[in-house]
Known about the structure:
The protein has helices at residues 2-32, 38-52, 55-78, 87-117, 123-133, 136-160, 166-198, 202-212, 219-254, 276-282, 316-324, 381-386, 390-411, 433-457, 495-510, 518-524; strands at residues 257-261, 267-271, 301-306, 331-333, 343-347, 367-378, 414-419, 422-427, 468-482, 489-493, 514-517, 532-536, 545-550. It is elongated and about 105 Å long. Helix 1 packs across helix 6 and helix 4 runs antiparallel to helix 9 (219-254). It is built from 16 helices and 13 strands. Helix content is 55%, strand content 15%. Residues 352-365 and 560-566 have low confidence and may be disordered. The longest helix has 36 residues, at 219-254. Strand 9 (468-482) and strand 10 form a beta hairpin. The strands form 2 sheets. Strands 6, 7, 8, 9, 10, 11, 12 and 13 form an 8-stranded mixed β-sheet that branches. A 5-stranded mixed β-sheet has the order 2-1-5-3-4. It is of the alpha+beta class. The chain has 3 domains: 2-250, 3 helical TM bundles of succinate and fumarate reductases (Up-down Bundle); 257-347, Ubiquitin-like (UB roll) (Roll), CATH 3.10.20.30; 367-555, Nucleotide cyclase, GGDEF domain (Alpha-Beta Plaits, 2-Layer Sandwich).
Amino acid sequence: MAEAATAWVDRARLWSGLTLFVYVTSHFVNHMIGIISIGALEAGREIFMAVWQSRPGTIALYGALAVHLLIAARAFLLRERLKSMTRQEVAQLALGAVLPFLLIEHVTATRLAQEFFALEPHYRFVLLAHWVFVPYTGFVQAAAVLAAWVHGCIGIDFWLSSKPGYRRWRPYLFTPAVIVPTVAMIGWVDAGLFVQQMAQDRAWLSEALTSSKATLPGMAEKISDARDRIWAAYALLLVFLVLARITLHSLDRRAGRIRITYPQGQKVQIAKGTTVLEASRIGGIPHASVCGGRGRCSTCRIRVDRGADTLPAASEAERKVLRRVSAPPRVRLACQLRPETDLQITPLIPPSVRGAPGIQRTSTAGEEREIAVLFADIRSFTKLAEAKLPYDTVYLLNRYFAEMGAAVSQAGGKLDKFIGDGVMALFGIEEGPATGSRQAIDAARRMAENLERLNASLADDLPEPIRIGIGVHAGPCIVGEMGYGDATGMTAIGDTVNIASRLESLTKDYQVQLIVSETAGNWAGIDLGGFATHETEVRGRVEPLGIVAIPDGKTVPATGPSVAHS
Length: 566
């Protein structure tokens, strides 16, 4: 029952928020038309009103508003400590709380006046109110729509943060997030200045007021009285919520508290029913959470070392995420787990740590991104090294690494690390998996070419040419700076890395130089139809993986334009 209720609340929050954001966006689009003329602005208003003042539009708008406010009030009441909120969450809560104060003035002067006094709040009347009669209301209205826009953008960012590829597109979405309200404000100001100028014409002003029916006796006083009453009611509601929160948390403390113990011995006391992620934030313990604690990613997952047998069952949403990452038993999502007894836990993903000056940073935030990963390894290196002195082996490896590193750099990749005689490289960290896959396959081709040149130059010093195996795969990884002290560096972890490594190992079984997963090949958009394809079982993966076995990496076609990932 609780699981179904939580899922319903999450869906209701999402759809009510999206409905309100569409309303604000359409409002901004209407304001943009003000750049053209007042006539165009009014024409746009007719369409806007036809949608949102229709019966379905009214139900959708005010229903979404009521649901969103109720869910926000519920979250405020149930959160263990407000200080555990992130800066984004604080900004969103603050904007959400102040928005009704800012909007009440506008709503009472337009929608309520329209319903009870048959006022026709066309744009000329609204602009006259904002720019001539009561100028401060114009600033209030501008602040309201901008606050609503920022509040909505933060919510959408939370929603999309765990979606594959979102990090790649996020910078491009920032541009419309800034341009839309900017152009809307320009249109609003331009129309306002025009009305301000026209208001000096008494005939024009009289016609505008008469056509809007804004000259009814006592209407202004009654609207002001209604506004003040609604303001007072909302202020009382906020006071009630604060008192209710204090009461609820006082009762929770009396009902008993539980203790969460962390790997370094830190202990955090919380009320029963508080999430483990909130416990980490309350205790000031860094804990990864890319999606902001909404159960849409797996970065906050923990292993329960003690107390696992007392845990409540995972919700379907949590089970879905855990199944996706093939989580073993006793692994749970910290943002979804609400323990009722003491626990000892270990966070499994490196957190974001920004220590005070002088404190060594141990790791930085990991982000889930879709990238391409390449592994390359020398075949029979032990046999090759046996016949050489240690210094000669070092010289040989350095020559090899220089050629392989150059191939990665020239293809646009990032050399992640050298592992013995192996190489790991990452591609598309910023550009995404399509570009990354093209770069990785291009790097494999360059590696094969550079290796042939290296073998030719060392022919007199080698009993046999150096042979390598290369594996390329693309998919989601956690990419971040990991390590300690001087050994800290940007790297990637996850199934995609493991599969790329195993593909490199499979080159021995298939007796080829390069194996590319079909996933990476599809992303890259390269014609690999001339090479043998296979379905292979990869350890740690349930479904067979399609691969392309390429005997000689030099024969890979030049990279072409990307295709849609299917």
